[in-house]
Amino acid sequence: MNHTRFLAIFLPVALILPLAGLFLPTAIGGGYLEVVQIALLILSSGLSFAVAMSYRKELKSVFLFLALYLIILGLAIIFLPLLENPLGAAFTDFVLGWQIVDYLMLVIACVYILKVVSVKKLNAAGWGVSGAMLVISAFTALYPALAELPDATSLENVLGITIRLVDAALITALTPVIWLYLQHLKTQQQQSLTFTVIIAGIIFSTIGDYLYQTLITALGAEGGGVIGLIPNMIYVYGYAIIAVGMYAHWKQDEWGYKMLDKALAI
Amino acid sequence: MDAEIEKIIDDLWNSGLSRVSKKEKPAARPRLGDLVDLIVPQDRIISMLESNPTLSSLIYYAAYASANRNAYIIIRKLNMPAEYFWKYEFWPKERAFTTLQKVINRVFTAILNENKEGLLSLDDVDAEKMRFTVSFQECAECAGLNAARQLCYYHAGTFAGIISGLMSREMDGFETTCTATGNKQCTFVIGKREDPEIAVKLTDYLAPKKLGIKIEDRVRDGLRKNATRSLGRLVNIEYYQLMVSNSILSNPALFSASSFSVGVEAGARLASILQETYRGNPLEMMNQYYRQLRQLEIEAIESGADTIITLTECAEVVPALQRKEMLGFLLGELQGMFSVFTGKNLTCAESWFEKGALKARLSPKV
Fold it and tell me: Which of B21, B86, B107 sits opposite A190 (nearest CB)?
């Protein structure tokens, strides 16, 4: 096995996980997707922690904070529903606080990513794409919220919109990683495919839900039934991409050397 | 750069890799085989360096470029990901050392062993600074030589090129200890090209200075079959061919001409060593010498005032791509030797390939 073959097999295969939700009765489908999300988040977090141990300094921090982001997100899905009744009126603030802490982990991970990735090597097209991504992601993040004209004075709404703006900023910050990989695809310069896949997974899971909401809002469609499962399906596939990328990244040393050994043994 | 010579270089690297993967290969030469005495490359390179000390840079950078390109090609050919050493500067010391050591040992140490060039090992890694220390025991480039300073420019360039190819970034290296200066092994420090300390030390290492080597003493010593290393006195012919093709790569015609004139002096020097060492007529002495070193077989016939020499099994000739520029030094050496032996001022009027053999016409200078 090598990392490209692994990704080529398992990225399409991972689609089975969210799509299976469509074939289950609607009542079970939602629960199934939540369980799969939790499993993928815990798995990805563990792998991210293992990967962090194979690096030092900023790159170690990237994977440590990603591990924290993923596990906090997983724990939220498990525990927050259980705390709704005990916390009563304070529940919303608690959720918001949890969300802020979780996002902080992702923001810190992104800051370290930008320290590690040679953004200076980005070509003009890359800067153009990043700029376009900023506009698109900001629009996609804000449009559904603004379309419903929320009360701007409500703290909950202000924080909600702030989080969407942070999401847009994160996506913009992560776009150069993807572009740098494409930019250097045909040169000898090293860009990690597996790292790029992990980043693509983060972008997908962050922007996917907003894309869905934008479409629903723009089309004026109802969010119930099978359509209601789509956000969770997007999350499941986003986390599956992260898990697959993380596993391939973790195994790269071993697989790479085995390939070499095998090629020389023929 | 000459594309054909570059192809010869790439083919030679590829051939080394094939030998490591134990692919069956016919012998390079039917009678003299795959090996050549290490005096042959040493005589050539030291004669060239003593004649023109600025060649140290040329040898280093040519070896660097060829190793850099081929290390990358080899790794890709072995299906390893190009980004295998991604963000190496962030690797913990143990992972950085162990992983690089495994790859170097499995591929490059193995190729150098097959070539009988020496025993390469990774001694230390400072991943954060991107500094590497490699040692090379039994170095074919300097074994048996006594020099005033380190002189393994070819291997310094090769090792820096290999690490550079693996890391996908420009690196440089210099030699800190050398067998020729009395050390047990040759040691090289390799680091980032932009590292000021590396740049300063490389400049000093490559600075044109006389080596102070009496190559004729080394040849005499070698002909007495004194062992200089436990790997033996022979190296693979491909190591020699790689060294020659690298040295002429940037400008084959110019470097062939300059190595020819150095060869003439070397040949004159060699003639007296042959007279001290062997018995018989000049042609018999030359044949004994070249056969002992496993360099070539030589025949000569008179044709009027000219002498036509025929060289077969020639170590400098890469059969797939016969390039006369590879033979500049050898033809000069033969002109020098024949001139001394005949007492005439001969010149190599022309040379050509005929049925796999190299022929040359030596004519009296008008």
Answer: B86
Ordered per-residue pLDDT tens for chain B, 366 residues: 778 888 889 989 988 888 887 777 777 788 999 999 999 999 999 999 988 888 899 999 999 999 999 998 898 888 888 888 989 999 999 999 999 999 999 999 999 998 999 999 999 999 999 999 999 999 999 998 989 889 999 999 999 999 999 998 899 999 999 999 999 999 999 999 999 999 999 999 999 888 888 888 888 888 887 667 888 899 999 999 999 988 888 888 888 888 899 999 999 999 999 998 888 899 999 999 999 999 999 999 988 889 999 999 999 887 777 788 888 999 999 999 999 998 989 999 899 998 888 999 999 987
pTM recorded for the entire structure: 0.89
**Is the minimum CB–CB distance between A59 and chain B shorter than 8 Å?**
yes
Cα separation, A175 vs A183, in Å, equals 12
Distances, alpha carbon B245 to alpha carbons B52, B154, B212, B269, in Å:
18, 12, 25, 24
Q: Is B108 on the interface with A (CB under 8 A)?
A: no
Chain mean position to CA A111? 15
User: Which value does ipTM take for this structure?
Assistant: 0.84
Nearest CA in chain A to B69: A188
Residues 142-161 of B with CB under 8 A from A: none
CA B170 vs CA B35, B68, B125: distances in Å: 33, 9, 17
Q: Distance (Å, rounded) from C-alpha A200 to C-alpha A81?
A: 29
Q: How many angstroms separate the CA atoms of B170 and A27, rounded?
A: 59
Hey, is the C-beta of A85 within 8 angstroms of any chain B C-beta? no
Can you read off the two tokens belonging to residue B162?
């290999």
**Closest A-chain CA to B101:** A257
Please provide the DSSP assignment of A159-215 as one string: HHHHHHHHHHHHHHHHHHHHHHHHHTTTSSS---HHHHHHHHHHHHHHHHHHHHHHH
Helix ranges (H only) for A15-123 are: 16-23, 26-52, 57-87, 91-116
DSSP at B361: E
Q: Is B52 on the interface with A (CB under 8 A)?
A: no
